[in-house]
Amino acid sequence: MANQHKLRVAVIGGGIGGLSFAVSLRKLCGSCVKIDIYETAHAFTEAGAGIGLWPRVWHTMEALGLADDLSAIATSSGFAGQGQQIELRKSDRTTHGGSALSVPSAVWTQLAGTRGFHRAVFLAVLNAHLPPNPSYTAHFHKRLVSYATSPSDPEATILTFADGSTAVCDLLVGCDGIRSAIRGTMYQSQPTSVDPIWSGSIAYRSLVPRKVLAKAYPEHPLLTKSLQVGLTSS
Length: 234
Fold this sequence. Notes:
By secondary structure, this protein is of the alpha/beta class. It has helices at 16-29, 55-63, 67-73, 105-111, 119-128, 181-186, 210-216, and strands at residues 7-12, 33-39, 51-53, 76-79, 86-90, 114-117, 136-140, 144-149, 157-161, 166-169, 171-174, 227-231.
């Protein structure tokens, strides 16, 4: 086994998708694969709002051996359960004092086991469970430009990065987001553009300190409810 050729897997993108894939591959294949993760940033980082893991996804985390570490950082366990509640409100039809929209009970049943996480903290747990060297290597400041089949080995793929460097892999996995260089290269021969196109809709998310909200609207439902989701029609 020690002399057996390892499958060289290149993962483009070191976000939640890329690291989750690497952890899963380690669980399934052990040391039989060589994993290289190429990340544009200087380190594994995540920005944006929090995320929630539904029960089905949580079962996957358990199978990967992440449950204990993730449970320790979860911002809520049994979300929308244990007496908690989520309300949906349509902002163009109800005010902060209006009634919530009717939601089927089956939705609450599905949400009952949801756990919430901050993206960066969740990523840190994945990072801690990555395969040990030499089975895994992280490469930072690496922005993929394109890839192509190796002229000397039809089963190998050559990766070209913005800094002029190259790498070779047997399997290429794209986790590089909405402006994916892998997707762009794969479909560059298509007659239509594969670049992201604005749908015409915008989603706004913001944080308001509880004290500020309580001072402005002492009776606001958010002060007594666990979570409310606002919906607006365009």
